[in-house]
Amino acid sequence: MAKANLLVAQSGGPTAVINSTLAGVIHAAYRHGGAIDRVYGAVGAVEGILAESFVDLTNLPADFLDRLRVTPGAALTSARYKLQPGDVARLLDVFARRNVRYFCYIGGNDSMGTVAQLDRAAGDTGAALHVIGAPKTVDNDLAHTDHCPGYGSAARFIAMMIRDTGLDSAAGFRSTPVKIVEIMGRHTGWLTASAALARAGRPDAAPHLIYLPERPLTVERFLDDVARVHEAHGYVVVAVSEGVRHPDGEYLFTTSRAHDAFGHRQLGGVSVMLAHEVQSELGLKARFEKSDTLQRAFAHCASTVDRAEAFMVGQEAVRRAVAGESGVMVTLVRESDAPYRCATGAVDAAAVAGEEKRLPEACIAPNGVDVTAAFLDYARPLIGEALPPYAYLPV
Fold first, then answer.
1. Rounded Cα gap, residues 7 and 98, in angstroms
2. The predicted structure's pLDDT at residue 267
3. Looking at the whole model, is its pTM more than 0.85?
4. How many Å apart are CA 362 and CA 366, to the nearest integer?
């Protein structure tokens, strides 16, 4: 078979390791020179493909790829674009004219829906196209994979942030005894749960309360919990998901009615509201913290495990495309916890699109405001090396 070109694109929210997946795709494409002629990147995801805004990635030097692996953000730039009527036919036309036979799409749930649509259309029309999804999301909510590239690094950042801000709160509890940290997570609590890794063997350390979207919450329950922990410890550090909900299913609080192209509500502000309630109802001074995009983009805290697996996923996407597969998403398959080992697999992309992997019941403590040892065993290997050791005086 004559050589053809490979196209790669990045979609959705960037992560600290999404460019490691991109580097893995490029690196593997170079190694498959017998099948692949040119390697192109689409600038701006699907919108870039429709506009034929491409950059040639064929001859990047090795040291550049090494730097790309540790660079946060999305080097090709990203977008959230929902396919419109006629778009799939236009995309197939672009692929045919550009001699693109292999397409690797790095993204989350919605991106896997695009992979499935393109694969189905290629099959219906007889187009010579192999479409592979490479997962990424800090939310860790993609189904049929043990975990997602991007999650381990975001979890590490959150663990370090909670531990350090917890020590800050412990030092200044006499003036400001309550701190509420808002963490990303629209429908799932994987990221917020990772705050528990901050304790690093000290069960009385922050966070003292963890609120997840999987458990309904009322302001009254929250205030009772804060009062109880304050009575026991003298200060309270709370990790709360931005997507925590009332028992009726509505978000506990949000400041915006804006939605993205896929209809997802823009969240944020629950920590501000809860801090106000603590001060007005309990008479305790409270601060709120919301690190927002730092959670997904802070490469200085990236997990070495996460970065290596992200690169591996990019390589596997190319290998499967060249082998003739299409319409699948590369998965991560945990082989062992101790020592931790992980391999790659694949699943039908259509089975991933539209699904959300919730935090399992076995990972949520019976009291609903903490996690279990099962979650810690699951998440701890993903954040890489142990958190740096600190010194604690008996005060």
1. 10
2. 62
3. yes
4. 9
